[in-house]
Design goal:
Elements (H helix, E strand, L loop, with lengths): L16 E8 L7 E7 L3 E5 L7 E4 L2 H4 L3
């Protein structure tokens, strides 16, 4: 947590977003999860340190947990 970077990348929702929860895998620091509250929100995963993202769950009930 010494430095932070704006969460962006190919595959993330655009437009207005609410809360975002971020977690880095303990076994692979290039794997990052982001739980995003947005119109096209859900649980996203990056396997390349945040350069590209894939939505792996779009259940809107889950996004309210961010």
């Amino acid at each position: 947590g010494n430095t932070w970077k704006h969460l962006e990348g190919k595959g993330l929702p655009s437009g207005i977003v609410g809360r975002i929860g971020v977690s880095v895998s303990g076994g692979d620091s290039n794997r990052v999860y982001a739980l995003i509250e947005a119109k096209d929100g859900g649980l996203y995963r990056s396997d390349d340190g945040g350069d590209t993202w894939t939505r792996i769950n779009e259940d809107q009930r889950l996004t309210q947990r961010a």
